[in-house]
Write a structure and sequence with these properties.
heterodimer, A: 385 residues, alpha+beta, Rossmann fold, OB fold (Dihydrolipoamide Acetyltransferase, E2P), 2 domains, six-stranded mixed sheet, five-stranded antiparallel sheet, 9 helices, globular, B: 223 residues, mainly alpha, 11 helices
């Protein structure tokens, strides 16, 4: 697995970005943090769109920027796909024209690359013809994967927000990028449209195998899409690592968001019936509102700490559908009157937020066996997988 | 009977001027649209000067600069053995300077309206700078470019004071329509003055009408 190494400084007015980390280039990596912390700026630095950035950026050992050695590969030569927050389709071209704009330049780049090595004109032409048919293939597979066929003849100003982002993703894919940079592509969409677009985002990394850096300030998108994440706060790297691990860390909650605090369960979807999907979590069954995924699909489930209640006996005759045996790993006294409990469910972590009074009444202590109670409706209307 | 000499000369002058305006004005307008330089206001003011100065002031300084004793004029004499003042070439130089704001300002506005967004998008899609310019910026700025061409052309056709100061009234060389009309009025040949004036009036109206109709039809206003 190659990596994207970034060691960069940039200041602009009273904002400064200082970032030094090596990001994994595999699957979807979320760049997460509150608004105004430099997530978009970081993405623009990687793309070569921030002229004021000083330092080094290298993709898999290939330098894109190295200020000390006066290396600055221009954006057009970096082979990356950038999906802007507002799509930025070219309004004077149809959807098809927008896609061709990218495909044509990718073809030209490949052809000149080959011609440079091949030398003679005839060979270059043949290679060019091959590149052309390869790019036709790329075009049709992108059109198919993103369901763009019906949009091809339309002008961008007739598209909905979701359609614009689909076209923008397709257009970026057609540059045959080595990495895709997505800047809050869902932020302008409502919850329903978001859910429609998300599978397409997953296909970028899945079907096309292009690593994705995904900027967002929405934690649901992080847990739904990403396997690893970068946490930014006030222009600085706060944490980098696995999504579940970072979202669980109490000391990061001020950044990940107090109310957003929770944990991520890994589960396997089972059958869906009567609007309820059953999930398998380490042999325990959870029931949540229908997810629209087939049986056997691995899913991430974000569970907010405030949605988890505790019982010391297995409760009977209860409306709560999800009851899982757990052991109490630790009790963290945060701000009164609450405490945070860290639970272990067959090796997976779960967080619960209850009152200090409840802890005393139940006589909870670390190491104790308890039952975690999660209401199914806690997941309703939220983005999850 | 229409005298075609001055008409033809005016059209030639306007056409050459527009070409020079586009060649010089486009890079400057581009720079003004995207620069964050502290020199920008100064340059903008300089470009706009012809809008407010009386043509005689401009013509006076141009006469001095372009005259055989002036810095530019002397250089021109050395180069070509002819004087720049009272020549067609001198008129082109004067017209370009006089019409500069009429071309640069619409271009600058158009490029500003295009903005960095589409250009950055084009760059990330593998388009080099000139490619970005011709395939993205130009199509999106069409309205401004057409406006610049038409205003530059029409304004050159209509100029009088600067031409009089720098070019004089030499048939076939500097005797453009506006000068010819002036002379006809001075010599009380009202019929000929009428023909040329009405011609210029109708021509200008038709051109402007065409531009406004075109702009209305054009789907792209801005990004």
């Amino acid at each position: 697995m190659s990596t994207l190494a970034i060691d960069i400084r940039l200041s602009r007015g009273d904002f400064s970005l200082r970032f030094d980390a090596e990001l994994p280039l595999e699957g979807i990596t979320a760049v997460f943090g509150p608004s105004g912390t430099g997530k978009t700026t970081l993405l623009r630095v990687v793309a070569g769109l921030e002229k004021g950035a000083v330092g080094r950026v290298a993709l898999g050992g290939e330098p894109w920027q190295d200020t000390d050695r006066r290396v600055m590969v221009p954006a057009h030569a970096r082979r990356l796909g950038y999906v802007f927050q507002e799509g930025r389709l070219f309004p004077h071209l149809s959807v098809e024209g927008n896609l061709h704009f990218a495909a044509e330049r990718a073809r030209r780049r490949d052809r000149s690359g080959h011609a440079g090595q091949g030398g003679r004109g005839g060979r270059a032409r043949k290679v060019g013809a091959r590149a052309a048919s390869a790019s036709d293939d790329a075009m049709s597979s992108v059109v198919r994967a993103l369901d763009l066929k019906d949009l091809l003849g339309r002008k961008p100003d007739t598209l909905s927000g979701g359609e614009i982002q689909r076209v923008a993703m397709g257009r970026a894919l057609l540059t045959a990028p080595r990495v895709m940079l997505l800047d809050e592509p869902l932020s302008a969409l409502d919850v329903r449209r978001k859910a429609e677009i998300i599978p397409y985002v997953e296909r970028l990394a899945g079907d096309f195998g292009v690593p994705v850096l995904y900027v967002t300030h929405n934690v649901d998108e992080v847990t739904r899409l990403a396997s690893s994440m970068v946490l930014l706060a006030e222009g600085r790297l706060a944490a980098i690592g696995g999504v579940a691990e970072i979202l669980e860390r109490v000391e990061l909650w001020p950044i990940t968001g107090r109310l957003e605090a929770g944990s991520v369960l890994e589960a396997i979807a089972a059958e869906t019936r009567d609007g309820i999907t059953s999930l398998d979590v380490e042999g325990e069954t959870m029931r949540v509102p229908a997810l629209g995924v087939g049986a056997g699909t691995p899913v991430h489930l974000r569970v907010q700490a405030r949605d988890v209640a505790i019982s010391i006996e297995r409760p009977e005759r209860l409306s709560i559908r999800n009851v899982m045996p757990a052991s109490l790993v630790s009790i963290e006294f945060t701000e009164p009157p609450f405490v945070e409990l860290l639970l272990d469910v067959h090796g997976q972590h779960l967080r619960s937020r209850i009152t200090r009074e409840a802890v005393e009444d139940l006589g909870l202590r670390e190491g104790q066996a308890v039952f975690a109670l999660i209401k199914s409706v806690a997941f309703e209307g939220r983005l999850l997988n | 009977m229409i005298e075609l000499g001055p008409v033809w000369l005016s059209l030639q002058l306007a056409a050459v001027t527009v070409v020079v305006l586009l060649i010089l004005g486009t890079p400057l307008a581009w720079w003004l649209a995207f620069t964050r330089s502290r020199f920008k206001p100064g340059i903008e003011a300089l470009v706009a000067l012809p809008l407010v100065l009386p043509p005689t002031v401009l013509g006076f300084y141009l006469l001095i600069l372009l005259g055989p004793a002036g810095p530019i004029g002397r250089f021109w004499v050395q180069l070509t053995d002819t004087a720049l003042t009272f020549s067609f070439q001198g008129l082109v130089v004067a017209s370009v300077i006089y019409s500069f704001p009429f071309a640069v300002q619409p271009l600058q506005n158009a490029f500003e309206n295009v903005g960095r967004g589409p250009l950055e998008a084009a760059a990330t899609l593998g388009a080099k700078p000139l490619d970005c310019f011709f395939r993205v910026a130009v199509p999106l700025a069409t309205r401004g470019i057409v406006t610049a061409i038409v205003l530059g052309f029409a304004h050159t056709l209509g100029e009088f004071g600067v031409v009089l100061m720098v070019g004089g009234n030499i048939p076939g060389e500097t005797r453009v329509v506006s000068i010819a009309i002036y002379e006809h009025v001075e010599t009380l040949s009202y019929t000929q003055a009428h023909v040329l004036s009405a011609g210029l009036l109708v021509f200008s109206f038709v051109v402007l009408l065409g531009v406004y109709a075109y702009n209305r039809r054009l789907p792209i206003n801005r990004v």
